[in-house]
């Protein structure tokens, strides 16, 4: 469960520090985390203008001793004993000093101009509350299975936007919704997120700690919209996602797809939107029953879904079934907790 916290930040905002780079990690892969930190050391923005907050989310051994980051004058390691990325993000926000916070995962590589470009985008778009990378390239560390395609890659946060996309309405989700890789959060939205998390704790406690939880990324976009601000992605913000072989296995992709669908339904509930239900896998038995009940149009539609589903590859069929199950399980969870679909204001 998300821990209780004080919304008031633990430090004062300073004009000298323009950007806070926030890294939340738990038992990181050493060679990937080392590359992540090296990519930060190559940033073009002067070191005096940004800080690094690293949140050790209760790793097996203290990470501050292994990764001291002596090359940066503004580094702070923070220990967060309550595991779960939302807890770590909250702790990092409370410790941050800058008006712009950029989250970086422990397997991300930011382009050298990422921080400087983010500052420029923020200055040119004063009504932008949260934004992120429009180009996230995969750096696969092993051979890809033959069945692995773009549909699968989407679940490991690979994105190639050809132009900037922004919106003030959450209905444009997910095309404009920025992800956690290089997520840029303005101070006002970050503080709103703290209040929002407190509400989420009481209403959706069973979501805390889920993989790909909308609490990690997408909730920031809701907070921006509810403050009259926009959100979006920009192709000039470029990053790489280091993908180890275990993340291109079918069980891992199916797990992500289920959790994403589960979170997506809750996202629509919080945002007050009605996104399309994931396409049904169809059933020949259901089609026959509908036909016997003299409902030919519904029977034909059900059978059409069934035939389309059969034409897909085995892996794609499993993926679609996982998505549909995650969506339905979310509906059951919402109903069992008596949560009503009403837009929240934060």
Q: Any overview of this molecule?
A:
With 346 residues, the protein is of the alpha/beta class. The chain has a domain at 19-247: Alpha-Beta Complex (Spore Coat Polysaccharide Biosynthesis Protein SpsA, Chain A). The chain is 40% helix and 18% strand. It has eleven helices and ten strands. Strands 1, 2, 3, 4, 5, 6, 7, 8, 9 and 10 form a ten-stranded mixed beta sheet that branches. Helix 1 links the parallel strand 1 (19-25) and strand 2. The longest helix is centred in the last third of the chain and has 23 residues, at 314-336.
Q: Count of DSSP E strands?
A: 10
Low-pLDDT residue intervals, each spanning 5 or more residues: 1-6, 341-346
CA gyration radius, whole angstroms: 21 Å
Describe the biggest sheet? 10 strands, mixed
Provide the fold topology.
Layout: E1 19-25, H1 30-41, E2 50-56, H2 63-66, E3 75-79, H3 85-95, E4 100-104, E5 108-110, H4 114-124, E6 128-140, H5 150-153, E7 159-160, E8 165-167, E9 183-186, H6 187-203, H7 218-225, E10 230-243, H8 250-271, H9 284-292, H10 296-311, H11 314-336
Properties at a glance:
18% strand; 11 helices; 10 strands; Spore Coat Polysaccharide Biosynthesis Protein SpsA, Chain A; alpha/beta; disordered C terminus; 10-stranded mixed sheet; 346 residues; disordered N terminus; globular
């Amino acid at each position: 469960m998300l821990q209780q916290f004080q919304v008031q930040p633990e430090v004062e905002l300073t004009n000298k520090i323009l950007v806070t780079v926030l890294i939340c990690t738990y038992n990181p892969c050493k060679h990937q985390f080392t590359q992540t930190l090296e990519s930060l050391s190559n940033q073009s923005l002067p070191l005096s203008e940004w800080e690094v907050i690293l949140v050790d989310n209760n790793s097996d051994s203290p990470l501050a001793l292994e990764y001291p980051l002596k090359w940066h004058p503004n580094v702070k390691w923070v220990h967060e004993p309550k595991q779960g990325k939302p807890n770590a993000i909250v702790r990092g926000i409370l410790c941050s000093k800058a008006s712009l916070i950029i989250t970086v995962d422990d397997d991300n590589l930011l382009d050298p101009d990422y921080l400087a470009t983010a500052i420029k985008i923020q200055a040119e778009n004063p009504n932008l509350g949260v934004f992120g990378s429009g180009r996230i390239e995969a750096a696969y560390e092993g051979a890809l299975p033959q069945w692995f395609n773009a549909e699968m890659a989407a679940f490991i946060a690979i994105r190639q936007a050809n132009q900037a996309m922004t919106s003030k309405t959450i209905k444009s989700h997910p095309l404009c919704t920025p992800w956690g890789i290089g997520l840029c959060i303005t101070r006002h939205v970050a503080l709103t997120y703290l209040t929002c998390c407190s509400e989420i704790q009481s209403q959706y406690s069973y979501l805390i700690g889920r993989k790909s939880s909308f609490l990690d990324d997408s909730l920031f976009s809701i907070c921006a919209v509810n403050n009259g601000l926009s959100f979006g992605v920009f192709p000039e913000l470029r990053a790489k996602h280091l993908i180890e072989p275990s993340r291109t296995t079918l069980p891992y992709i199916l797990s992500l797809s289920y959790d994403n669908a589960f979170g997506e339904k809750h996202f629509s509930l919080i945002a007050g939107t009605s996104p399309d239900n994931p396409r049904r896998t169809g059933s020949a038995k259901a089609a026959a029953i509908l036909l016997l009940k003299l409902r030919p149009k519904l029977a034909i539609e059900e059978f059409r879904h069934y035939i389309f589903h059969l034409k897909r590859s085995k892996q794609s069929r499993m993926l679609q079934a996982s998505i549909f199950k995650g969506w339905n399980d979310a509906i059951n969870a919402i109903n069992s907790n008596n949560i009503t679909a009403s837009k929240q204001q934060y």
